[in-house]
Design a protein that fits this description.
By secondary structure, the protein is α/β, with parallel strands linked by helices. The chain is built from five helices and five strands.
């Protein structure tokens, strides 16, 4: 069990990073629906209190703003929906998975993904 001071520290960092920008989280039904939307989709499989996941939120928000309606970028909380995350073979948080418009996975990344590397991977996959 973490100490109260450690928990307060993690909460403070998470709250500060979260305030910098975030993308919406999906429920299981929304995850199934978004993957059949015929749009590029990026799902970050993570958790609301996972520090690297929270650190990714401003990057994801910037990408959503940059791509606008050409792509959908969302969170899916593994901690709240572990069975659905397991169906996507998620072993570590955060894991970002990129799906093409047909709903096929084209790439994935584990951990914090710097914006420039993320953009390069999306361009290589075909999302420009």
């Amino acid at each position: 069990m973490p100490s109260p001071r450690l928990a307060a520290f993690v909460f403070a960092i998470s709250s500060a990073l979260f305030a910098q920008g975030h993308v919406p989280a999906l429920e299981p039904a929304g995850l199934s629906q978004i993957l059949t939307s015929k749009k590029w989709t990026v799902i970050e499989f993570g958790g609301p209190t996972c520090v690297p996941c929270v650190k990714m939120q401003p990057v994801l928000a910037e990408l959503q703003q940059a791509f606008g309606t050409r792509a959908q970028i969302r969170n899916f909380y593994v901690t709240e929906h572990p069975r659905e995350a397991q169906a996507h073979k998620i072993m570590v948080m955060p894991t970002q998975v990129v799906f093409d418009p047909s709903g096929r996975e084209v790439t994935r990344h584990i951990g914090y993904w710097p914006k420039d590397e993320f953009l390069a991977a999306l361009a290589k996959a075909g999302l420009k």
